[in-house]
Amino acid sequence: MIYDDVELHNVAGIQSVNGGVRLQRVPEDVREHLEEGARMRVMQPDNCEIRFVSDSAESYVTLSSEGETDVTVFNGTFDERARYTIGQEPTTIRLCPQDRVQRLGRKWWKDQPFAPNVRRVIFGGYRRDPVILHDIKGEGVRPPRPEELPGIRYLAYGTSITHGFDCAGPHLSYVAQAAWHLKADLINLGVGGACHCEKAFADHIAGRTDWDIASLALSVNMQGFSLDEFRKRVAYLVNTVAGADTSRPVGCITLYPYFRDFGVEDSDLQCGGTPDAYRQSLRDVVVECPLPNVHLIEGQEVLTNIGGLTGDLIHPSDNAMIEMGRNLSDRLKPWLKGHGPTGSPTNESNATSG
After folding, report:
1. Which SS3 state, helix, strand or coil, does residue 342 take?
2. Closest CA to 122 of 14, 9, 1
3. What is the Cα–Cα distance from 14 to 178, expressed in whole angstroms?
4. Residue that is last in its domain, among 148, 172, 202
5. Could you tell me which residues come within 8 angstroms of residue 263 by beta carbon, excluding any fewer than 6 positions away?
6. 113 and 40 within one domain
7. Are residues 38 and 185 in the same domain?
8. Banded pLDDT at 338 (limits 50, 70, 90)
9. pLDDT tens per residue, range 31-52
10. Which of 2, 205, 328, 351 has its CA 20 to 30 A from that of 9?
């Protein structure tokens, strides 16, 4: 989305609030048809970015949050090591790329997915309340051009693990790590605690034309659903998303290992089946799907070391997220033949943000 001479990446809707615009990962007419948990989660700005190029050495972005939001600054692929926490009062962040990055010759960065002149204000981390953009100042501010951005768009839908909970920064979630290895641009549609495969979400993802490959992590949030309801919802999501354009690969990921796999039960958790029963249900949906672009990915082959989990034995730590990103990218990469830098030129979808 282009807004006020900048690109709002991973932003599909904005709402005017408190003297600025709130960034949302889905449009309002989609959000209002989601279940309550997802309606709240899609306003959390994980992996949303404000991106622009400026002629001036310094530029300024003024932000506020509806609570607290963590902010990380990159220039292209280079981490500026600038970290901020934005509160409810508008705060202005000064962006000034380091001189060495500005003087770096093209031959050293030409194979990187982002040009180093792209200033990236990225949201997410431990604090992720809805964020509001108030103002951007700088000389010659413009959106990045397509050639300054990745040629591949990778969309990820899933639970809090996809969303990036317990990560120290937005670039450390497993889907962000997978995007890093794929040299892809991440569209993160993780909805912590609310990945319920709603029809409205399936239709929204299917209707988007700004992604080249997708992963659907389906879904530990649905262990309270009966297996029949789980299968029904998952089948609609998989067939709808993949059927919208069969040239776009869709990887369906079974449940990642978690505490129930290790013999630890939660008395407050009402489950419709064992973890393996949900995994088998997704396998069956994939096998029965007639579409050539649907693929199965075993979650237990993505997260292989349970020692990388946090103490709740369900959310991965940064160590596990890094492992997962590498393993997932290895599975996605062969399906990207003919897309972007790993094959022939991708389509025009990299010209605008989602």
Report:
1. helix
2. 9
3. 27
4. 148
5. none
6. yes
7. no
8. low
9. 999 999 999 999 999 999 999 9
10. 328
Same domain? For 144 and 160 the reply is: no
Between 32 and 267, name the one with better pLDDT. Answer: 32
Instruction: List Cβ neighbours of 217 (8 Å cut-off, separation of 6 or more).
Output: 156, 157, 158, 159, 161, 162, 195, 253, 256, 299
Structural domains counted in the chain: 2
Task: Tell me the pLDDT tens digit for each residue of 64-93.
Answer: 999 999 999 999 999 999 999 999 999 999
- Same domain for 26 and 119? yes
Number of H helices and E strands in the chain, helices first, is 11, 16
Please state whether beta strands 119-128 and 69-75 pair in parallel, antiparallel, or not at all (unpaired).
antiparallel
- Average pLDDT of the chain is 93
What is the per-residue pLDDT across 205-216, written as a single tens digit (0 to 9) for each? 999 999 999 999
Residues 249 and 196: their CA atoms lie apart, in Å, by: 21
Residues 176, 138, single domain; the answer is no
SS3 state of residue 354: coil
Q: Quote the CA–CA distance of 288 and 188 in Å, as a whole number.
A: 27
Residue 208 sits in the same domain as residue 317: yes
Of the candidates 107, 124, 148, which is a domain's last residue?
A: 148
Query: 3-state DSSP call for residue 350?
Result: helix
CATH code for the domain of 97: 2.60.120.260
Token reading at 283: 């396998």
Are 164 and 300 in a shared domain?
yes
Nearest to 76, CA basis, from 180, 232, 153, 160: 180
Residue-wise pLDDT for 116-167, tens only, equals 999 999 999 999 999 999 999 999 999 999 999 999 999 999 999 999 998 9
Its domain, for residue 180, covers 153-351
Is the pLDDT at 351 greater than 90? The verdict is no
Same structural domain, 106 and 190: no
CA distances from 227 to 201, 233, 276, 279 (A): 20, 10, 11, 10
Give CA 82 to chain center in angstroms.
21
